[in-house]
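Researcher: Following up on the earlier apo prediction. This time include the ligand. It's flavin-adenine dinucleotide, with the SMILES given after the sequence.
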Amino acid sequence: MTSSTHDAVVIGAGPNGLVAANHLADQGWSVLVLEAQPDVGGAVRSDRSVYPEFVHDTFSAFYPLAVASPTIAGFELERHGLRWREAPAVLGHPTPDGEWALLHRDRDVTADLMEKTHPGDGEAWLELCAEWDQVGRHVVGGLMSPFPPVRHGVGLLAKLHRVGGPEFVRTLLTPVDDLARRRFGGRAPHLLLAGNASHADIPMDAAGSGLMGLLLTMLGQTVGFPVPEGGAGRLTEALARRFVDRGGEIRCGAEAVGVDVERGRAVAVRTGDGHRAAAGRAVVATVGASSLYDGLVPTAALPRRVVRGMRNFALDPGTVKVDWALDGPVPWQSAPAYSPGTVHVSDSVAEMTQAFGQVHSGLVPADPFLLVGQMTQADPTRSPTGTESLWAYTHVPQSTVGDAGEEGIRGVWDRDDNERFADRMQARLERLAPGFGSRILARRVLGPREFEARDANLVGGAINGGTAQLHQQLVFRPVPGLGRAETGITNLYLGSASAHPGGGVHGAPGMNAARAAVVHARLRRLTGRARR
Ligand SMILES: Cc1cc2nc3c(=O)[nH]c(=O)nc-3n(C[C@H](O)[C@H](O)[C@H](O)COP(=O)(O)OP(=O)(O)OC[C@H]3O[C@@H](n4cnc5c(N)ncnc54)[C@H](O)[C@@H]3O)c2cc1C
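Model: Understood. Below is the ligand-bound prediction.
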């Protein structure tokens, strides 16, 4: 066995691991990052294996949360090679009758488009945006801080009277369906808000869906849905480069297989290739909660409430993603007024609700809600001129009882299930864009198993490190009573999407973990001095 010694060992080089590592290196700590895969990035990677000269983002693709995140913005990644690109429109939702609901980067353009289809909605849209201008920074800051978010909570309270006081808090807590109905008469705002709420696995008629819909829609309106020029991997490269420039060390192909705990304190991480990395001040684990608490740490070392709480830990649904290389743009039956980077595909809000209900009752959805990325529209470097690098993903049950569609998909997600379900997804696009199939140069399907093989955190294709529903958020994430990065074991912190505030590329769980490690190390030094 080989060994090394560091101030901190970070497990996992996804965005949260790299954010934590950067912050600790900024404090002058010696930091080792251990990554199981051959490459850094976790769910923020791109590759060229679908078709020559095409870049595809293997998992995540659009980064409004990264741009809005004070943490990631504070790293000034543009100095480390990152360049953001944006599509002419942020988001589009085509309807079967050939119309589009469009979110343009310019709120006045969005409002004009809405006004044309339903008089009054334009003004209502601008009102909603103006309210968000007052409180959005505090809502985002509060969500990204450890619980309770004191500073941003106070900031929000100070601004509330400008946006209607408790009524606005009620808006945030209202299910997205009601929220859209109360404020707008037309279809477009309803589709945009509900589609964005569907990025999380919160039922559309439950509290939390309104906040999610509002958050992503207003971020789209204020910071856009930007993408890194050249591929998602460029965001990771910038984070990794910044860390290494500060003396940090990354070891890829080094799977952590155990965290050594001595007298209630995490002291080292062991890897599958026979290395023991001692951590003098902290171990930051950016693995899934189950992987940390049901594997890496001996159960006997864990507080009882964590062991008990983990029995009820719930994953979010699985995912199937299809990547296409197209020899031309998507041939939408009616072209949108402005070409969007992100596209939502569902005939109606009722159909989104139905697909959601099917997934949650264990059925493979008959008419899946598709999240689509027209990546070359957003960043022309992704594929040769005139072509399109495209993907779509949708959710499937973690445990399948049947197929709500007609093809008898079993939900075992072998090659046969993956390909048949990809055909179902593709047929949805073909209906809205006749001739889509004839533009395909190559197609790749990643099902739940392929997700997990490429990133152990994506358990069963779950993309958010655990359900985002209210019963597992805030102080309930990942188990009741936590809501912070501390684990109950001294020097061990959970910093992945399984920790508060959950999934998305904003780096908040990683930053919360790194900050907690620094604060505890300082406190220990101070109390040590006081004793002497
Ligand atoms: C298909 C898909 C689409 C998404 N789209 C978006 C999007 O457009 N925008 C957005 O903001 N978010 C999106 N997300 C969510 C976002 O990517 C994740 O929430 C985010 O990557 C979580 O970061 P993380 O660092 O916690 O985990 P990950 O990014 O999953 O990284 C974890 C890392 O830890 C490593 N690891 C795991 N176990 C070990 C071990 N034992 N030893 C060593 N290393 C280990 C893994 O290999 C991986 O590299 C998407 C996710 C997926 C899967």
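Model: The mean pLDDT is 93.
Researcher: Noted. I'll compare it with the apo version next.
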